[in-house]
Specification:
Blueprint: H1 4-11, E1 18-23, E2 26-31, H2 56-94, H3 108-136, H4 145-149, H5 154-205, H6 215-220, E3 229-235, H7 242-250, E4 259-265, H8 270-285, E5 290-294, H9 301-310, E6 320-323, E7 329-330, H10 334-338, E8 348-357, H11 364-387, E9 398-401, H12 402-407, H13 418-428, E10 432-443, H14 449-476, H15 481-516, H16 524-539, H17 549-571, H18 591-606, H19 613-621, H20 624-627, H21 637-655, H22 659-676
Parallel strand pairs: 3-4, 3-6, 4-5, 8-10
Antiparallel strand pairs: 1-2, 6-9, 7-10, 8-9
């Protein structure tokens, strides 16, 4: 609201009325047109030469208010910068690094990889010092080498020798490696473009799987007309999410006599197992057919858990099996929208639904993950399902025909990607897959970088293990030649091996090296224009995330270190390839879940669903066990070393006046620095 003295000034005809809204911390200013204000006849504001000019005092106040707004924004930015600096200082002071992240993991490969990066960093800093000294001597990079050798100065002769070595021995192999990576980059970009065109064609033509059975017939049918469905829920020490997930699965709209729920608990924590068992007993009292199974020895992890459950004698009475991980919350109509797609299609072995995320806007890390997974489901899975009838099973939110599982050999524990393993073997047996883009199942994204990093390591080491194991089977299989080519060259080599290889090699190794060996050139369109175009294509399925396109591009290059390391460990059977870590969940629910929880609260009390107070009391009285697993942020040494390497290369690019390369290296180095200090994702105070 404007002050009274301002209003008095306007009443005397001092200029254009201005309304000032004081909203802390910003000021909002809007001008009121003369036609909207009450103007006295003959006043300067009503017309005439004097009314056209603005009052100088009003303009001064407007400028002051705008300056106040700008100062507020600068203050906010400064506060954010100070908070980031304080967090970075706490990380360094705490001294916790990724060296103690996984005590059971073999550290040999990690130590070697980190050592190579550290040596590369030291060399680059020495070369930067040499180049800076040469620059201040006025020696241009393109001066003839013999001229330098004739100089008497020892430093000049040494620099001339370095230029000769660089020109004759380093530049040719580096240029060859650069060209090879550029070719791989272009091939992968073409593959990404073709997938996007396929997705556009699907949208244009309205292509999607349609069940042969009509919806009304299914609704009006009796229980005897619904197939028998087995629902499996594997979980392990996931106390935060078990309750809401079991509740969502028990609420599936399907005749209770025609489906059975198996809660497959691999937890090694007695309190968590007791809570899960109690939740199962609660739903049993409500009439739901649900069984609790607990394994003491976790052989084979998730694959071993599912394999053990499929060996139960009653499984032979069921036709389909649905798998939901511990954090997945299906809608009540999930089965009625997926199972009908099997009717009349005896060659369909899998129907896969897409994922949606309840915490996609929680922090920057979850937003960037959402971009990746939206492209994966909307483009990759949908296009491969529509045109090839094959894609990698996502491990959850999918319905399998039990006959297809048995025909493919069942679950195997030989890799950390048991879902992809069974999908490839089923494809080799001739089974077809359907992807339903319009059927969603809610789940959670990892909110901490540590959890996301572990998940990505497993997802990128497992495919290389599987490729080694099933390559001969693919060659010997009876599927068509083009399907074999798609499986070997596109599914495995291009998307699982080449992508992490060139992402790390091209942008984290070759690009910095070309700054110190400028005779080998990396074109600007490879550094900037094509990556920007690919990022735009990736972000199209999630248009609301467009403001994060630059952080997304930088973060994907940052994650290439983890993915490259995982790919190498899986390809050569190194120790960390068999590391299995359950992705940490936070137990967040959607708004719909919270409303349903409030509505059912009184009902659950009436059926005796109160929590086990004795178990909770024991848990609170024994805090020592949980103190060992206390969460905290870490410093990631590889990312931090690469950050300094890229920033050093950025400083070297200034001497060569390479603008695009400088900005890319600068921002990419800052991105590695942010990730290395664990400033992205969940922050633990």
């Amino acid at each position: 609201m404007a002050p009274s003295w301002w209003g008095g000034r306007e009443a005397r005809g001092g200029g254009t009325p201005v309304v000032v809204k004081m909203e802390n911390p910003n000021w909002s200013i809007s001008e009121v047109a003369a036609s909207e204000a009450e103007v006295a006849p003959g006043s300067p504001a009503g017309g005439g030469k004097a009314g056209r000019g603005k009052n100088a005092r009003q303009i001064t106040w407007v400028l002051l208010l705008r300056a106040h707004r700008a100062a507020g924004r600068l203050t906010g930015a400064a506060s954010a910068a100070l908070a980031v600096a304080a967090a970075a200082r706490r990380r360094v002071a705490a001294g916790r690094t990724d060296a103690d992240a996984a005590p059971g993991e073999s550290t040999a490969l990690r130590a070697r990889f980190y050592g190579c990066i550290r040596v590369f960093l030291v060399l680059s800093m020495l070369l930067l010092a040499v180049e800076v000294a040469a620059y201040f001597q006025g020696w241009h990079l393109e001066v003839e080498v013999p001229g330098f050798l004739a100089v008497d100065s020892l430093f000049a002769a040494a620099y001339g020798g370095w230029m000769r070595v660089r020109l004759e021995y380093l530049a040719p192999p580096l240029q060859f490696l650069t060209n090879a990576c550029v070719v791989l980059f272009l091939i992968q970009s073409i593959d990404r473009l073709v997938l996007c065109l396929g997705c556009f064609w699907i949208k244009l033509k309205g292509i999607k799987p349609e069940p042969l059975a009509a919806g009304k017939e299914d609704v009006e049918a009796g229980a005897e007309d619904f197939p028998m469905v087995l629902v499996q829920m594997p979980m392990c020490n996931e106390r935060e999410v078990y309750q809401q997930s079991i509740g969502a699965v028990c609420g599936l709209d399907w005749p209770r006599s025609n489906f059975l729920i198996q809660v497959l608990d691999d937890s090694d924590d007695a309190t968590t197992s007791a809570l899960i068992r109690e939740e199962v007993e609660k739903w049993q009292r409500e009439g739901v057919r649900i069984i609790y199974r607990h394994r003491v020895i976790r052989d084979g992890y998730k694959a071993g858990n599912l394999k053990s459950a499929m060996n139960c004698s009653y499984v032979k009475d069921y036709e389909f099996v649905v798998i939901f991980d511990a954090d997945f919350q299906p809608q009540p109509d999930f089965l009625k929208r997926t199972v009908p797609h099997f009717k009349g299609k005896d060659d369909v072995g899998l129907v896969q639904a897409r994922w949606s995320f309840v915490n996609k806007d929680e922090n920057l890390l979850t937003r960037l993950q959402n971009i990746n997974l939206c492209f994966h489901f909307e483009v990759e899975q949908q296009v491969n399902g529509a045109f090839l009838n094959f894609f990698g099973f996502n491990g959850t939110a999918g319905v399998w025909r039990i006959k297809a599982l048995e025909d493919s050999g069942g679950w195997m524990e030989r890799t950390t990607v048991e879902d992809m393993d069974i999908a490839v073997r089923a494809h080799l047996k001739g089974w077809k897959f359907l992807f339903l883009n319009d059927v969603e199942c809610q789940c959670e994204l990892p909110e901490s970088y540590e959890a996301y990093r572990k998940q990505q390591h497993r997802w990128h080491s497992g495919p290389m293990q599987l490729f080694r194991l099933c390559f001969v089977d693919i060659i010997k299989s009876k599927i068509g030649f083009w399907k074999k080519c798609n499986l070997i060259f596109l599914f495995f080599l291009l998307r699982k091996l080449i992508l992490p290889f060139y992402s790390f090699t091209l942008f984290c190794v070759i690009l910095p090296m070309t700054m110190f060996v400028p005779e080998a050139e990396l074109p600007a369109w490879v550094v900037c224009y094509i990556p920007a175009t690919m990022s735009i294509l990736n972000i199209l399925p999630a248009p609301k995330s467009f403001p994060f396109i630059v952080p997304y591009l930088l973060f994907e290059n940052t994650m290439s270190v983890t993915k490259f390391n995982a790919m190498i460990s899986g390809l050569f059977q190194l120790g960390s390839a068999y590391e299995w870590v359950v992705t940490k969940k936070s137990g967040r629910s959607s708004e719909g879940d919270l409303v349903a929880l409030v509505e059912k609260h009184s009902k659950q009390q009436r059926v005796g669903s109160a929590p086990n107070l004795d178990a909770l009391t024991k848990e609170e009285s024994n805090p020592k066990k949980d103190s060992k697993k206390k969460k905290h942020n870490r410093i990631y040494r590889k990312e931090l070393a690469l950050s300094f390497l890229l920033l050093t290369a950025a400083a070297r690019s200034v001497l060569s006046a390479q603008g695009i390369h400088f900005y890319f290296l600068l921002f990419q180095g800052v991105s590695f620095l942010v990730v290395g200090l664990d400033l992205i994702g969940e922050q633990v105070e």
